Amino acid sequence: MIVLGIETSCDDTSVALVDADKVLAMCSASKDLDHAKFGGIVPEIASRNHTEFLLPLIEELQKKSGIQLSQIKSIAVTQRPGLFGSLIVGIMTAKSLAQTLNIPWLGVNHLEGHIWAGFLKDELISPKFSETKPFLALAVSGGHTSLYQVDKFADYKILGSTLDDAAGEAFDKWAQMLGLGFPGGPKVDELAKKGDAKKFSLPRALLNEGDLNFSFSGLKASGSRLLATLSQAEIENQKADLCASFQAAILDVLILKLDRAVQKTGIRRVTITGGVSANSRLREVAESWAEKNNIELIIPPMRYCTDNAAMIAWVGRKRLLAGEFSPMNLSASASSYPEDFDRTLLVTKR
Length: 350
Ligand code: KG4
Ligand code: ZN
Description:
- By secondary structure, the protein is an alpha/beta fold.
- It has helices at 32-36, 43-65, 84-101, 110-116, 167-177, 184-192, 217-228, 232-237, 239-265, 280-292, 302-305, 309-321; strands spanning 3-7, 13-19, 22-29, 74-80, 105-109, 135-140, 145-152, 155-161, 269-273, 296-298.
- The strands form 2 sheets. A 5-stranded mixed sheet has the order 3-2-1-4-5, sandwiched between helices.
- A hairpin with a 2-residue loop joins strand 2 (13-19) and strand 3 (22-29).
- Helix 2 runs parallel beside helix 3 (84-101) and helix 4 crosses helix 12.
- The radius of gyration is 20 Å and the shape is globular.
- 48% of the residues are buried.
- Bound molecules: 5'-O-[(R)-(carboxyoxy)(hydroxy)phosphoryl]adenosine (KG4) and zinc ion.
- Zinc ion binds at residues 110, 114, 141, 143, 274, 307.
């Protein structure tokens, strides 16, 4: 059953075709430069860009895959959580196509997509361990930082989440304070390679709390106070050390909480997804942590780490095959539904 996936929850516009658990093709677009001058994603600009990009991307997808719309059997679209105006562009396109082609459509939770992104298969990759065994999923990006326990498909428990900023947001804000531009993560990553992570001492929040939550707003405030003690010339000369120290404060917490989650649950299979998993140092430290502790780890390639439609089509396909579909009057939801990550609340099928 070929499923068309559509993702427009934030600033990335993405479409993909998935069949028999394999990604057949994917086309994506985003325009960081449009948002860069504002130092972060501007929802209105993101929605306008989706309107411009989406249908041409679907045309490109057909050309790339050689698969026509008439061969698509159902549509999965990100319906929650995300920027409302952005979600609507994808949802209205999905509904219109579904009605025209007379096929079912399904609204999917974006975070469920991230949870399973490590298991996407294509011509170039296949996952390192089976999706049928329980695993821990850390989704860490500009919009989310959450740690899930996955016992099986559609059975999720949130072990911990950020209480304030997402990790990627902290990277972006730090880069903005240093005048590095947007998105800041890759720039901080690059500079940090040449810096001394021990040069500046910055806080590791909630390390002693014993729980699995995260907090990055205190780090941002400490970073800002640290910069206020330095002259412009000192900041300029020590940018690499500043980036390495800030980055280490984020990564230390991510790895420690992952380690704590492994110990608490006894589950030794882990996936890390989301834009921040592109961080070269995070990949290094996570790989060596996994090797040292005999943990099976999947960090998918970048195309499946950042927001993408393949993960939405993959999750949607599983649910559609199980008989789920959405009604034509379903709209977007800016937040997840309580029952998405708590099975005890699941009373009726949507
Ligand atoms: O998953 P994503 O593309 O979009 C969402 O936010 O959902 O993630 C983007 C985030 C941004 O905050 C960006 O700064 C961060 O991922 N990021 C990185 C790196 N590449 C992207 N953070 C740290 N190091 C990187 N190399
Ligand atoms: Zn995302």
